[in-house]
Every structure is written in structure tokens, then in C-alpha cells.
Amino acid sequence: MWHTCRIAYELESGLASTSAPIATMFPLVEGETAIAAGPLIIDEYKSAGDGSYQSSTFLAGGTGVFGLALLAATATASAAGNANRRAQAAQNAALAWRHQTSGQITVTNHGFYIQDLQGLWRWDWGSIDLLQAAGPSTVVMQGQSTRGPLTWRLFSDWAELVFVLWAHARHRQHPQYLTGEWVQPGWVQWAAAQGYPLSFGPPRPGGEVAAE
């Protein structure tokens, strides 16, 4: 967060970046510089199914009292199994935050890269339509992917940096960006108490940047 506040100050003040580029295991596009990297967890707001399920009926029969009792028991078990499958299908069809992947995020001046066991994916700022700071080290984004629109929740130490760089590039009138509300209340004071005072400040109301 300290580094993110510094970067926000440099951006809004028009100062040259003091961030040292970091090395990557993959090539960057021309003019792109990697700024930070760290672990990432992604949840996606989606359903896990379409609400359908496979109904199953199994009846074991016989004659006499024992046969009738067995028939009733298997019918009850079959109905219970179908009810459970129906309930599970309904639960899967509901929209909810569901774990998508875990991996590594690399933030650049043009966007960010996601690397997991399935591969490497690049997001540029232009592909992201909405970003919102949603808590410490958490942002919610909506964007246009190769499989269509999606809604993600990103957990990373660099989540606020993603927000700041995107807002500066795409939406400087974002209310959280203008007011500095992407910084958690009391964090500046806490950082100073830990020995990391800010000689600069995050964006203030009206887009001003005030020194601490």
C-alpha cells in the first residue's frame, strides 16, 4: 500500500516514476514495464450449473410383506436421492462468488498478467470496464474476456495498485479515486506508527494530492 500511494502521488503530480522495473519470465509488449508481482486469488461471480439434474429411479421388488417393504424403502431412497440432486442443481444454478483460480499477478504500466497452472493471460486497461476497491487487498472488476463479459474479485497485495493504475488510465473521475477512499480508513496513521510515514499522499477530494 505504501508503494501504491507513492505511485498514485507520482501519477497525479506528473512526476517521473521512481519504481524500479522488475524482471519477468515472459516477454512484455513494447513500451510496457513491470512494476510489481505477487500471489493472486480470483473468484468469479457465476453459476456452477444450469439447474438441470439427472433423475434416477431404482425399485427392488418381491412378493409378500418383505417384498412390499423393500419396494417402499427403495422408492423412498430414490425420491430422497432425486431431491438431493434437485437441491444441489438449484444451488449450482444460483449466481455466487466461486473460486476461479490461484496464481501470480504481475502489474505493469499497461495492465496486468495472470499466471497459473493453466497458462498466462494478459489484461490491458482497455479491456476492463469497471473496477472497485472492495476492501483491504481486494478489488472487483468487470471486463471483456475472450469468453465474453465476466465479473471477478481479485485478492492480492497489489489489488489497490491495479485500481490506481486503471483509474488513472481510464477513469480519473472514479469517486473512490477522487476521494482516496481506495485507502482503508486509518491506514496512513497506522503506517506512520509502524515507521513508514508518507511524505506524499493519495488523491484527495477534487483530484488534489496533498503532502502528509
What's the helix and strand layout?
Layout lengths: L1 H12 L20 E13 L17 H30 L2 E13 L2 E6 L2 E6 L3 E8 L2 E8 L2 E8 L3 H12 L4 H5 L7 H7 L19
Antiparallel strand pairs: 1-2, 1-7, 2-3, 3-4, 5-6, 6-7
CATH superfamily: Pleckstrin-homology domain (PH domain)/Phosphotyrosine-binding domain (PTB)
Q: How do the helices and strands follow one another from N- to C-terminus?
A: HEHEEEEEEHHH
Oligomer: single chain
Tally of individual helices: 5
Name the poorly predicted regions. Answer: 205-212
Mean pLDDT: 84
CATH architecture: Roll
CATH fold-type name:
PH-domain like
Largest sheet, in brief, is: 7 strands, antiparallel
Shape: elongated
Radius of gyration in whole Å, from Cα? Answer: 26 Å
Using DSSP, what is the number of strands? 7
Give the class-level CATH name: Mainly Beta
Helical percentage: 25-40%
Number of domains: 1
**How widely separated are the two ends?**
15 Å
Query: What's the arrangement of strands in the largest beta sheet?
Result: 4-3-2-1-7-6-5
What structural class should be given to the helix and strand makeup?
alpha+beta
Strand content: 25-35%
Question: What's the gist of this structure?
Answer:
This protein has one domain: Pleckstrin-homology domain (PH domain)/Phosphotyrosine-binding domain (PTB) (PH-domain like), CATH 2.30.29.30. Helices cover 31% and strands 29% of the residues.
Structure report:
The chain has 212 residues and is α+β, with helices and mostly antiparallel strands. The protein has a single domain, classed as Pleckstrin-homology domain (PH domain)/Phosphotyrosine-binding domain (PTB) (PH-domain like). It is 31% helix and 29% strand. It has 5 helices and 7 strands, in the order H-E-H-E-E-E-E-E-E-H-H-H. The protein has a 7-stranded antiparallel sheet with strand order 4-3-2-1-7-6-5, with helices on one face. Helix 1 (2-13) packs parallel to helix 3. The longest helix has 30 residues, at 64-93. The radius of gyration is 26 Å and the shape is elongated. The protein starts with a helix and ends in a 19-residue tail after the last helix.
